[in-house]
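In response to a reviewer's request, we include the raw inputs and outputs for one of the modeled complexes. The three entities were modeled together in a single run.
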Amino acid sequence: MASDKTFWQYIERRELARERLKASRRTLLKGAAGAGALLAAGAPLGSSRIARAQDAPNLEGVTLRVFTQTGPFISGPIKFHAPEFQELTGATVEAIEAPNADLFARAQQVAQTGSGDFDILLLANTWMPDFVNLEYVVPLQPFIDADIENELLAWDDIPDGIKRKNSWAGTTYTFIVDNDNQTMFYRKDILDDPQWQEAYNAATGNDLPNPPQTLTEFVEVAKFFAPNGGGAEWSDAGTGYGFITCVLRGAQSYWYSYPWTAPYSVVPTDVAPDGTPGIYIFDPDMNPLIATEGYVRGLTEFVDVIQGAMKPGLDADRATVIEDIINGTTLMSLDWGDTGPASVAERSVVKNKIGFALTPGVTEYFDWQTSTWVTMPDGEIHQTPTHAYNGWSYYITNQTPNPEAAWEWIKWHASPGISSFDVASPDSGYQPWRNSHATNLEPWISAGWDEAEARAYIETILAATDHPNAVFDPRLPGAARYQETLELYTNQAIAGELTPQQAMDECTTAFNGITDELGRDAQIAAYRAHLGMAS
Amino acid sequence: MSLSIGRGTKILSYIVLIAWAFFTLFPLYWTIITSVKTQSAVSAPNPTFIPWVQFEPTLQPFRDIFGEGEGYGVSGMGDVARLFRNSFSAAFFSALFAVVLGAMAAYALSRFRYRRWRNNDIAFWFISQRMMPPIALVVPYFLLFGRVGLLDSVPVLIAVYTAMNLPLVIWLLRDYFQDLPIEIEEASMVDGTSRYGAFFRVALPLAVPGLVVAFLFAFVFAWNEFLFGLTLTIDQAKTLPVQLAGNVTLRGPRYWDIAAQGLVVMLPPLIIALLVGRYIVRGLTLGAVK
Amino acid sequence: MSTAQPALATPAPRATASRRGMDGYAKYIFLLPAMLYLLILGLFPLLFSLRLVFGAWNAGQKNVTWVGLDNIQRLLADSRFWGSFWKTLSYVALAAGLELILGFAVALALLNVTRGRSWMRVAFAFPMLLPPIAVSFTWKMLFDFNRGPINYFLETLGLDRIAWLAGQNSALLSLVIVDLWQWTPFILLASLAALESLPVELYEAATVDGASRWNLLWDITLPLVKPYLVAIVLLRAIDAFKVFDTIYILTGGGPGTATELLTFYAYVAGFRPFNMGFTATVSWAIVIIMSIIFLLFLRAFRRLEEA
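The model returned the following structure tokens for the whole complex.
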């Protein structure tokens, strides 16, 4: 029976994970006794599972309450690793969960009313300014400075892009255990297939790009491999579609428009004011950039590809995006990284068939500084890898009586060894974010990956992290309100209630209303702090 | 009413009833079978309907809820015992208080004459409280309870649910007391019992069936409540529906899991419906035809 | 929050004049606790929130600031609010109307049978007692475009799949269907009780006069139960007005704003982004709208009763 098989494989995998954890724990404890590096080399999780040089801290009797999202993908790793941490240090770690759509309201509620008593938050990176302004979270800089040589912290193993996302106004407030940049997923077996290359050429007059480099190419390919384009037979799993994205309201759908609007509307870093990367959605004076020709063109293409290449129904949520890639009915998606690990899950029919690449670029972009379209030199493509949500981020609250203990947990959970296990699992929502995740491939292989595939996946994700034109999700006070608003109007454009231009015009008005309400000068200062500009 | 009915009418009636029974029961059936499916069975291209024939049932979703889950699925519903305790205490005590306060008010409305306000107007005022949209109370509750540091506590839920159910309970019980014969109370009062004695020793015991129905109603509606649970609790007082609703986004709904969790939340109302459904139905429609 | 309440038609109280003197205090001791309780937890918080209509309390802000009429202006200028208002009215009218027709029809059918009536009555009551959140998840599975059984049935019958939760109109209709499933039983059972209480003699007389079954229904039954039906539908409409849970789970207000009904609008445009002043403003608007509609209904009802 199929289901029994799944069940036993689950058990087996769990036993394996338990064994591995036990072994690593032994290593850690022995490491504490001083045998450090030697034993670490033999640790089953690989060499990056570094033994501690100093004693594990004694946190007997301490309870750490971590506030995060309901469901296994984000809170699961906390619950899973908590017993191990308890054995190691004596501290109890609990996950307190809330529905995703209400996380921000709940966090504000807690911050503003002082109820809740959370020690640690594992929440969106984009909410940092709100928490900082409320003085609800404490800077992590002192902890990092004190532990800068610590092997669990492994500071040099953290890419600069992650460090930038962790800091706001020059101070580090968060610790990211995830990455959240968007990646292109495509069926390389189909794009490699000479038959389809020929058919594509016959239908469109162009060579089949493998993979698509620009949004224009992407749209053409997506439309061809859909029922209306004539190439729907590529899938053995039923009617094939060229593209899938999340369109359901309240299900993070607007983030899926980022890779479409950013390339046209974000200027290359070298022509940006002060050479500032990732000026997106607002200019440095908080004037919305969403109704510009560039942004609207991107949104128009997004709506167009949804109508022309995606399966009907308009009810796809994130699960559908992932499932439709791994059940072999959809050719491409632009999504957070989770599709990668899911493609090796047992139910996947596309193992080793998925290609990974940076999200497509453009050959011309709209320069909002001059209100003109700029064409890239021949052969060059303007790419702007987008970070949406910026990664699940640990915060330490000002309410905790045990900030040091909270830091110990964060440092341990984010350490190269533990994190390598979490980012490789198809059941976690964490994406690779440490440099060592690309070299320590053992957890990936034991999760079912081929080594080369895993490396390609991780390197693509890390390339987006440190890309010179990387675009981070704006971190502003009131970020949730701007996001809520952008989602509403993006969704109205997708649903056809408004044209993209109308939707973005109305959204601009709404954005300005929010900015005025929150104080324009303060918002400008905060936004510049996000961009890393001098105010 | 009963009249002799033609054959055709009867057949038509049965067809309508069978169709309605299917419409009513199929969603329940679907929830139950989904709760014993594996992820692969749920994601299969075509839905499957018959366990053992079309798919092999598993109890894994329930194992996940109760903390023996696999991998990151461990304790899929969090601290399920505490959630259950919160939901149960909130529903039980709010129903109890609503019935106590409600029985007194209902008795008063059916036995005394209020000259200045008029009984019907008072009764109408009570029922008009049910008209109040709950969302209008969310912000003030949030602020007022927040100010005194009572957010996220079960007593606050009890207080709020009591207020929510009180009008309904008063309305149900007023009808019930009106149907009780006054004569017994009067006889006992002639014998020297006070009004309070008449209420506690005569009227209340007679009204027990009505009190039970009102209690069960209040219990079920409090158990099912979501908006206040969502906005007034965080963690310590979180109720089952709020935890269940958390499954709505991120990586999309894990239906096999959600169906199992949904059944756990449905269980107490289902049990009540099965055990005392007949009385509930009577209570439900009691006032409507008066 | 949703429930079934009994109707507004009420008989006069049966007070006994002789005991008035002795009941002097008891009268108030029995009544006042419930009244005070509802004043403290109902009316007082509502009035308290009136202050916030003129204030702003936002994310990241520690205290309330005063903004005068800003919230009200924003609300009245918000096309989303007016859209939400009309959509709520359609939802309520559709749900209550269809529930009345279906509920009454099934009640008539139930009246015609004797075998199984008692268990069917209980089985039909099930949906009302179940938690709307759990019910919504059940329907989310049923409505699923690709893997849901409803579209599977449609396809088996040779029909097109329907984007239940994603179409501009179908999303609202899907919510109505869930409402029908859960709350038609209320109207069904209430009508059944009303029908069962009708005097048989009337019918016997009419049958002797040679009236057809259709005539009986139209000329005798309906006029007799009409006041009850109106009252029941009114109660249902009030509850339908407050719909929130099903939207939260099924559509999140989408696609676009297609299912942003008033309560959900207040929540999603006010509470969720932590804009307490605006939430209070929308809430007050809802209270006012509901009161007006309720009073209009009541007036119509009184006229009907007098007629």
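As requested, we also summarize the result in words. Residues 7-73 of chain B form one domain. The CA atoms of residues 46 and 54 of chain B lie 11 Å apart.
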